[in-house]
Design goal:
Chain lengths: 385, 171
């Protein structure tokens, strides 16, 4: 056979040579002009992937990822141990970060940088006092008021307080002491609630200038010794929902002057309690219109609260009924450490894994649409507009 | 089939030319003796598995399974130029810390362990170790390992974490 090929090639060579000589040369490629790629129109299927880059933590960043086209659209710089918040209209990303004058060391600057999400360019910044809370990812390290009039930044030195910022004017308005309670859970005009070791919520009310006008402490709603509450709350249509280490649900209505606690319910059946539990860095996501809750769940005991989920369990928030269990290993996925769901009628569920992949599911059926390998180094929290 | 027969015949002849009956018997003897001894040897299968993967033994301070690390979350300073209780050269120890209660199976006691961060250089980046026995969220800072405990240092950059025995835990 090989001889036959050689013979054929030898016989056809003159024909090929004649053809090449006779064919006109292709037109040269046109000259190119360097440009900046514009972002496409905003999509509900975009997701902002916070990458802590734990191995090189002074270089955290946020990737903007398109869940329909499965490609990265751009990047926002993150500095050291940063926290992020999207403005209520989704037009701005606020990144609270720390920078060092000489990269890895030198004078510390704590700052909030604002990025225009239509261009991914930084528009302005607010220099913070060197008190910024450098802690694990949550929606409540830095958070906007509902009307974007204020931005609240959690401080920890380790004495706890928070800064009240004016994002439009680009300045710090003041600092509110929180008596040992931590983080900033915003609600209304203008309330900030913080989680206390005693299992209570401290709610501070501010006037339009950012001055404290009132504060109140709730009754205890969790027990930090027996069943601690994850601080990674999930936004609902009227407040936030929190999970405990053992899978209890604390749904809090923040629409009134003081928080209102719905009767607790459980993610797990009595036989599952203590065996199956939620865990990792972003412990749930909610589609507000559909009233569906998605939670990465794993089998494990005490001390496994940062372990990722081997399954995603889906709940109906109205009935508290478990609708589905979606195993992840069948897709070749490692444990899921962060989840987010788009809020449109054809929602996507995004799931970041401990091996840094990003899975994109149909959030209604659980059908896997795509796995983006190595989407980031440490994808610890996912946000969407 | 004929081709196969010829192939095996040729390979058998080649083998015969380069080996003797005695060497075959010797090899078989070694194999049988080894197989007979194998179950009698006191083998630590767990450590063999680790050795095979190039991992340190669980009783080594370079291993994430080391008993003192029961509530740690960060890079082990013993892999970064320090030890389990000393910071690497050129860094600064954090004066504040979180604590854990860890059981030492070596002496059967529970110990209070202070987890201090070593600060002033960028992350060590090796021997990342996350264990969370008794770890609590940030509203209980003294038991929380998510915070950057370099927060009160002159240079707050986080490098690695040490595990310092404070004393025996009282029951």
């Amino acid at each position: 056979m090989r001889s036959a090929h050689l013979l054929c090639a030898a016989l056809s060579w003159p024909l090929l040579a004649a053809h090449v000589l006779a064919a006109p040369a292709p037109a040269p490629l046109p000259a190119e002009h360097i440009s900046i790629e514009p972002l496409p129109p905003r999509s509900p299927h975009w997701v902002y992937v916070y990458d802590d880059v734990f191995d090189y933590e002074t270089d955290a960043r946020v990737y903007l990822f398109d869940g329909d086209r499965y490609r990265r659209l751009g990047q926002i710089s993150g500095g050291f141990y940063s926290s992020i918040s999207l403005s209520p209209d989704g037009a701005t990303t606020a990144v609270a970060a720390t920078y060092f004058a000489r990269g890895s060391h030198g004078t510390r600057t704590d700052v909030v940088e604002f990025t225009d999400n239509r261009t991914l360019a930084v528009t302005h910044e607010i220099i913070l006092p060197s008190k910024r809370a450098m802690t694990g990812p949550s929606l409540f390290n830095v958070a906007y008021s509902a009307d974007a009039h204020f931005l609240y930044a959690a401080y920890m030195t380790p004495a706890a307080s928070f800064g009240v910022l004016d994002p439009a004017a680009g300045k710090v308005l003041g600092e509110i002491d929180t008596a040992g309670c931590v983080l900033v859970i915003p609600s209304g005009h203008y309330r900030v609630s913080s989680l206390c070791e005693s299992g209570r919520l401290l709610t501070v009310t501010l006037d339009a200038q950012g001055h404290e006008t009132a504060r109140a402490m709730s009754e205890p709603f969790f027990d930090a010794d027996k069943d601690p509450l994850f601080v990674q709350g999930i936004a609902t249509s009227n407040g936030n929902l929190f999970l405990t280490f053992l899978g209890e649900v604390r749904d809090i209505d923040f629409s009134a002057a003081q928080p209102v606690f719905a009767p607790p319910w459980s993610l797990v059946e009595p036989a599952e309690k203590g065996h199956w539990r939620p865990g990792a860095y972003q412990v749930g996501a909610i589609h507000k219109e559909l009233g569906r809750l998605y939670v990465p769940m794993h089998e494990g005991g005490e001390g496994t609260h940062k372990d990722g989920g081997t399954e995603i369990w889906v709940y109906d928030l109205a009935s508290h009924r478990r609708l589905a269990r979606w195993p992840l290993k069948v897709h070749g996925l490692s444990r899921v450490i962060a989840v987010q769901v788009s809020q449109d009628p054809a929602p996507l569920l995004f799931a970041a894994t401990e091996t840094s992949d990003l899975a994109v599911f149909d959030a209604l059926s659980g059908r896997l649409r795509h796995i983006q390998k190595q989407v980031a180094a440490s994808p610890w929290i996912l946000l969407n507009p | 089939m004929r081709t196969l027969d010829q192939l095996f015949e040729r390979s058998t002849r080649s083998l015969a030319q380069c080996t003797s009956r005695r060497s075959l018997l010797a090899a078989l003897g070694q194999l049988l003796t080894g197989a007979a001894l194998l179950p009698l040897l006191p083998v630590d299968r767990a450590s063999r598995a680790h050795a095979a993967e190039g991992k340190p033994r669980p009783d080594s301070p370079d291993s994430c399974e080391y008993w003192k690390y029961c509530a740690i979350d960060g890079f082990l300073c013993s892999c970064c130029g320090g030890t389990s209780a000393s910071c690497p050269p050129g860094t600064a120890a954090s004066p504040i810390s979180w604590i854990g209660t860890c059981h030492n199976s070596g002496d059967g006691r529970d110990y209070i362990v202070s987890y201090n961060d070593c600060c002033g250089k960028s992350t060590c980046g090796t021997c990342d170790c996350t264990r969370n026995e008794g770890e609590k969220p940030v509203y209980r800072p003294s038991r929380n390992n998510d915070l950057n405990w370099c927060m009160a240092n002159a240079d707050v950059n986080y490098h690695c974490t040490v595990s310092v025995i404070l004393g025996v835990a009282e029951k």
